[in-house]
Amino acid sequence: MSDQQPSGRRADRSGAPQGGGRRAESGRNRKIDVVVVLAMILPTVVVVAVAVNEDDSLPASTLRPPTSAPLTDAAVVCPGAAVPGDVSLTRSPGVQGGRVEVRTGTTRLDAGSPVDVVPDRVATVQEDSAPVEISGHDAAAPGLVAGRGGPTAPAECRPPAFDEWFVGLGAAARNSSELELVNPDGGRAIVDIALYGPHGPVKSEDLRGITVGPHEVSTFDLSKTIPRRVDLAAHVTVTQGRVVTTFRHTIDLLGQSRVTTDYRLSQAQPQTENLLLGVPDSGPRRLFVMNPGQDELRAQVQIVTKDATFTPEGAKDIVVGPEEQGWVNLDSYLPKDAMKDSLGLLVTSSEPAAVGVRTLVGDDVAQFSSLPRIESDAVAVLPTGEKRLVLGDAERTGVVHVTSTDASGKVLDTQDVQVGAGRGSEVDLPAEAVAVTVESRTTPVAGEVLVSGPASDPGLGVVRLRDAEVAAEVPVVRPD
């Protein structure tokens, strides 16, 4: 037999491996090794990646809401009075109370005599017109409530706020708003005021970076600082320290020798549902809608009654452009008699909005703003005059317990008021009552007291119900 190896294709298919075949086999082995290695490594990589990703998001996933702790430091400021009057002080139920520090002054708050403030009684600080700061510490801090002013222009006394909105402001000679900033602390505060009109933001450099010194009062007349013939909205942001912001709005009724002043009420943040109770059913009522967003806003006005909330037939949407304040006259916007027997308005919008109403009751200017929801017992200090309490914004059917008292704490009247979702409720209060306590155990509500002036000085005042501060929120800090 011949020892010669077969040649050609047959030789390629022989069992004896050739050099090229060995290299190909080696390549296949390496490919298999890579796949095996990847099959082993990839799950580990994925696990590590997930672990890293979870670690990156750990702060968000482990963040907890602030815890509640007893309030040990509280301040409430009553702005300078549109109508001269003493400041009345009381507390929400269930707190101990104690002596509070009082400061007063037109440009600087100077210390005065301390006042003992306890629940169920009303104490008085005698001060005609200047701003008044009331501060409490330890047991004297929780539940502090104050009020001042006459029946047609009661001032809203409140704690400092860091971010809020005001609508329906004026900067003209006969329709003007005065800004007042009160710093209740021992360190300086810095405030930014952004203004908006019917065509967007309004340049207001004089209202940027306002510095308010310790226990100082700063005022700005918009008709002089930034004169405009149009109505304005304001966004107030406190960037350092604490401040209580107030806008007093004055209308000079041309040819009537009558000047009327009231307070423009604040709104903590824009919302898609804004409830305004107590709006009169007739008269020159101007509804303002501020759109702080970057998209066009469409708002719809609904009527709130004791039975239901409904959209009046033929009422068109109110369209407001980005960063603009729009307005409508309700007298022409709503069908005739649409608000007959109504208790207020519900303004719903496609984007969050700040909303308010300015009107005249007789020759008196009256202001209405979006109402905050009451989550706990609320106490309001009231001026003298005929009064009625209006409630709404209940989540479900329930009963609200209303107690009216005089200055000594004597109970003048108690009533249980039925509330329900999608409707309002109202009840008359004793004219001599100087404080009212509203307790709702079954559902959050919103409400305000409407105070009528005497026959010699007709008009309407608004006192909003607000939760009194009884606890402090302490953030939960996670160590790195």
UniProtKB/TrEMBL annotation:
The keyword Transmembrane applies. InterPro entries: DUF5719. Residues 1-27 are annotated as: Disordered. Pfam families: DUF5719. PROSITE patterns: PUA. Keywords: Membrane, Transmembrane, Transmembrane helix. The chain crosses the membrane at residues 32-52. This is Secreted protein.
